[in-house]
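Morning F.,

Quick status update on the modeling queue. The single chain you submitted on Monday has been processed. Sequence for confirmation:
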Amino acid sequence: MMKTLVLNKNSWHYRIASQMGSYDCYGDNHNICAYTKDVIIGLFLLFIIGILIGMLGFVVWHIIFGIIFSIMYGAWMFSAFAEATMVMLLILSFGYSINRGIERFNKWKWSKTNPAYKRPDNFITNAYKSLKGKYCVPITFQE
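Structure tokens below.
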């Protein structure tokens, strides 16, 4: 008998599988394969919804700024202070991104070189193992 994987009902993947997929309709068929299928379908649906919201937001954004721009007859421009602020924010965000990348690389390098470090079993690692091993781990949920 395979070891049962215990997942949390408050996790992001459970919310996606139960709200966007049909995972609650399965009844007793609680295994990682059906659960992974519903998570992937839910992520795909969220992606499509995000694309549609982004397209709608793009149109509304340009309508609003087109009206404002036409009201001001094209006289609206950024001041020198606003341009300097945008450049400073760009530089700071670039530096922050480099710093986070270095931190993540060092953490990854440490986890690969430290023999005592073992990653915990979670949804993604078990889904990958089930896909490669052609078996479905049974799962249960806890609050």
